[in-house]
């Protein structure tokens, strides 16, 4: 249940971001999402009927940048889109989300794209074609390093070539700028060079267990479970004293040196979960750019992601600070 106290906290945290963001940079992917809704997801070899095809802006990094921008942060995007109409569409959507796209280059070819099927329960399947994203290089990053030299936090995921991801991390980490890595699409064996040059890890509980070589079961998801002490130790041994592990409907755990804080899940009626994780990541970036704690950033992000689950698509479902606050204020009034 959402209380008025929760709504007041939302307003206060969003205000701190709008007034105090020292800048977010996101380096990575932008895709057009071709999305259809079905009653259920098809089985292998099966054809199912779907509703109208929707063409929506997406790409993990672009989603994260858009979420941070709508939360009130000053955001710069690095990456490539194609010279097709989809490229122009992606740039206009990011600009509408208050993201600076002046350094995004146009590759002579198609933009990245995904084909997404969403069922009646909000679950989805996603197929990714990299397109222009495959041509983001370490040389491109070097050419645009001024954006990295002048940011307060860097956000990375793994939809872009690893050389470009690592070079971006090296530049910011070398400058003392915190680098938040979302290990998604999931890579079980991260390059040591990337681990050494990133500061905060964001993964879900299953990715965390696989990455650290741990077993996990339903009982472990309780915030009171002693399991999380072993996770903190394993994370530190792996290379991270700061991390966020999302637990789906169970919430999230934010790890900082010497402590772990539980973030409860926010309950809403989900329509589509596509891009919810990216909205969570983008809000973390926005919070860190305004010097919010990792736990406060994650608490705010849980509300942003819950709001996103109530709409269709990724960026298309993201709300502004005012929209999100009013949505949950209405819930609080209803009791």
From TrEMBL:
<feature type="binding site">
    <location>
        <position position="313"/>
    </location>
    <ligand>
        <name>K(+)</name>
    </ligand>
</feature>
<dbReference type="InterPro" id="IPR029056">
    <property type="entry name" value="Ribokinase-like"/>
</dbReference>
<feature type="binding site">
    <location>
        <position position="308"/>
    </location>
    <ligand>
        <name>K(+)</name>
    </ligand>
</feature>
<keyword id="KW-0963">Cytoplasm</keyword>
<feature type="binding site">
    <location>
        <begin position="31"/>
        <end position="33"/>
    </location>
    <ligand>
        <name>substrate</name>
    </ligand>
</feature>
<feature type="binding site">
    <location>
        <position position="159"/>
    </location>
    <ligand>
        <name>substrate</name>
    </ligand>
</feature>
<keyword id="KW-0479">Metal-binding</keyword>
<comment type="function">
    <text>Catalyzes the phosphorylation of ribose at O-5 in a reaction requiring ATP and magnesium. The resulting D-ribose-5-phosphate can then be used either for sythesis of nucleotides, histidine, and tryptophan, or as a component of the pentose phosphate pathway.</text>
</comment>
<feature type="binding site">
    <location>
        <position position="278"/>
    </location>
    <ligand>
        <name>substrate</name>
    </ligand>
</feature>
<feature type="binding site">
    <location>
        <begin position="277"/>
        <end position="278"/>
    </location>
    <ligand>
        <name>ATP</name>
    </ligand>
</feature>
<keyword id="KW-0630">Potassium</keyword>
<feature type="binding site">
    <location>
        <position position="272"/>
    </location>
    <ligand>
        <name>K(+)</name>
    </ligand>
</feature>
<feature type="domain" description="Carbohydrate kinase PfkB">
    <location>
        <begin position="24"/>
        <end position="317"/>
    </location>
</feature>
<feature type="active site" description="Proton acceptor">
    <location>
        <position position="278"/>
    </location>
</feature>
<dbReference type="GO" id="GO:0004747">
    <property type="term" value="F:ribokinase activity"/>
</dbReference>
<dbReference type="GO" id="GO:0019303">
    <property type="term" value="P:D-ribose catabolic process"/>
</dbReference>
<keyword id="KW-0119">Carbohydrate metabolism</keyword>
<feature type="binding site">
    <location>
        <position position="311"/>
    </location>
    <ligand>
        <name>K(+)</name>
    </ligand>
</feature>
<dbReference type="GO" id="GO:0005829">
    <property type="term" value="C:cytosol"/>
</dbReference>
<keyword id="KW-0547">Nucleotide-binding</keyword>
<keyword id="KW-0067">ATP-binding</keyword>
<keyword id="KW-0460">Magnesium</keyword>
<dbReference type="Pfam" id="PF00294">
    <property type="entry name" value="PfkB"/>
</dbReference>
<dbReference type="InterPro" id="IPR011877">
    <property type="entry name" value="Ribokinase"/>
</dbReference>
<feature type="binding site">
    <location>
        <begin position="59"/>
        <end position="63"/>
    </location>
    <ligand>
        <name>substrate</name>
    </ligand>
</feature>
<dbReference type="GO" id="GO:0046872">
    <property type="term" value="F:metal ion binding"/>
</dbReference>
<feature type="binding site">
    <location>
        <position position="204"/>
    </location>
    <ligand>
        <name>ATP</name>
    </ligand>
</feature>
<comment type="subunit">
    <text>Homodimer.</text>
</comment>
<protein>
    <recommendedName>
        <fullName>Ribokinase</fullName>
        <ecNumber>2.7.1.15</ecNumber>
    </recommendedName>
</protein>
<dbReference type="InterPro" id="IPR011611">
    <property type="entry name" value="PfkB_dom"/>
</dbReference>
<dbReference type="GO" id="GO:0005524">
    <property type="term" value="F:ATP binding"/>
</dbReference>
<feature type="binding site">
    <location>
        <position position="317"/>
    </location>
    <ligand>
        <name>K(+)</name>
    </ligand>
</feature>
<feature type="binding site">
    <location>
        <begin position="246"/>
        <end position="251"/>
    </location>
    <ligand>
        <name>ATP</name>
    </ligand>
</feature>
<comment type="similarity">
    <text>Belongs to the carbohydrate kinase PfkB family. Ribokinase subfamily.</text>
</comment>
<keyword id="KW-0418">Kinase</keyword>
<keyword id="KW-0808">Transferase</keyword>
<comment type="pathway">
    <text>Carbohydrate metabolism; D-ribose degradation; D-ribose 5-phosphate from beta-D-ribopyranose: step 2/2.</text>
</comment>
<dbReference type="InterPro" id="IPR002139">
    <property type="entry name" value="Ribo/fructo_kinase"/>
</dbReference>
<feature type="binding site">
    <location>
        <position position="274"/>
    </location>
    <ligand>
        <name>K(+)</name>
    </ligand>
</feature>
